[in-house]
Amino acid sequence: MSKQQSLQEAVSSIKDRSLLALGGNALHRSPIAFVEELIRQGKKELAVIKTAGALDIDLLAAAKSLRSVYAGYIGFEMLGLAQNYRKGVQNGEVTVHEHACASVIAGLRASIYGVPFQPINGFQGSELPELTGLVKYVTCPFTEEKTAVVPALRPDVTVIHANIADEKGNAYVDGALFEDEIMVKAAKRVIVTAEKIIDSQAWDVTPQIPGFLVESVILAEKGAAPGSCAPLYTIDEKAVVAYLKDPASYVEKVKGAVSHV
After folding, report:
1. CB proximity list for 67: less than 8 A, separation 6 or greater
2. What one-character-per-residue DSSP string does 165-226 give?
3. Alpha-carbon distance 179 to 226, whole Å?
4. The pLDDT value given to residue 261
5. How far are the Cα atoms of 63, 110, 252, 259 from residue 104, in angstroms, in the given order?
6. Please, what is the Cα angle at 255 between 249 and 260, to 5 degrees?
7. What tens digit of pLDDT does each residue of 2-28 get?
8. Which helix (H) or strand (E) element contains residue 158?
């Protein structure tokens, strides 16, 4: 049975106040087409899990669709700060659940394992546990040493962008997988957008994402643009800079666009 849907159909299933995990990393292979459709459909009060976010998070903040973020880094790498996200936080519109990237991953793994928290090392000397309250300490029952733990993060929906998928939801990423596989396994539901959809009998590579975990798959050519989707296209720096200079116009353009995906 085919799991292929239109972008509009898949996004219509997202409820306001959902906790979304967005795949990719910063300006690389993030599901931008999906994020833009969230904005077109007026989704509100969204919470997002992301190790390192950029346009996806900032765009939701600019559109006033963002409620909170669990992340280790939000910014545009060499192109500058995420100003709309920053303003949203400063104005009290966006709540930051500040993590390190590794602790986001640990929280997702806890959900995969079906446990309420995950031990993690590396916070020695950091004030993050005390400042955020997201890191607690327990006594290890085996060594009796003080051990840092982080709570489970279970997305309502994980959305990733892949190079290739088939009608059954199997998906292949050509290049760095980032945290996509972990996000997929941790989530209650999974949606895949892809540059290309093939017949399930036509694979000549092995998909990393198994279709039985995926609820729906969407054909979304240039679905990560203006970010990159290696090796198909690189970051469109001109478009990203134009967004940073005038995000309001970009948001209005997104809202007024008719999706052909």
Report:
1. 17, 44, 45, 46, 47, 94, 95
2. EETTS-EE-SS--TTHHHHHHH-SEEEEEEEEEE-TT--SS--SB-GGG-SEEEE-TTTTTT
3. 20
4. 52
5. 25, 10, 32, 32
6. 120
7. 999 999 999 999 999 999 999 999 999
8. strand 157-166
Res 258: pLDDT: 62
Host H or E run for residue 74: strand 66-74
**pLDDT below 70 — which residues of the chain?**
258-261
Which residues are CB-contacts of 256 (< 8 A; sequence separation ≥ 6)? none
Q: Which two tokens stand for residue 168?
A: 């059954």
Where residue 254 falls (left for φ over 0; alpha for ψ -120 to 50; beta otherwise) is alpha
Sign, Cα dihedral of 44, 45, 51, 53: positive
Euclidean distance between CA atoms 161 and 165, whole angstroms: 10
Q: Say whether 39 sits in a helix, a strand or coil.
A: helix
* Rounded CA separation 231/151 (Å): 36
Residue 178's nearest CA partner among 250, 229, 133 is 229
Instruction: Establish whether the linkage from the previous residue to 207 is cis, with ω within 30° of 0.
Output: no
DSSP 3-state assignment of 256?
helix
Query: Rounded to whole angstroms, how far apart are CA atoms 187 and 66?
Result: 19
Helix (H, G, I), strand (E, B) or coil at 22: strand
Classify residue 127 as exposed, middle or buried by CB count within 10 Å of its CB (0-12, 13-18, 19+). Answer: exposed
Q: How many residues does the chain have?
A: 261
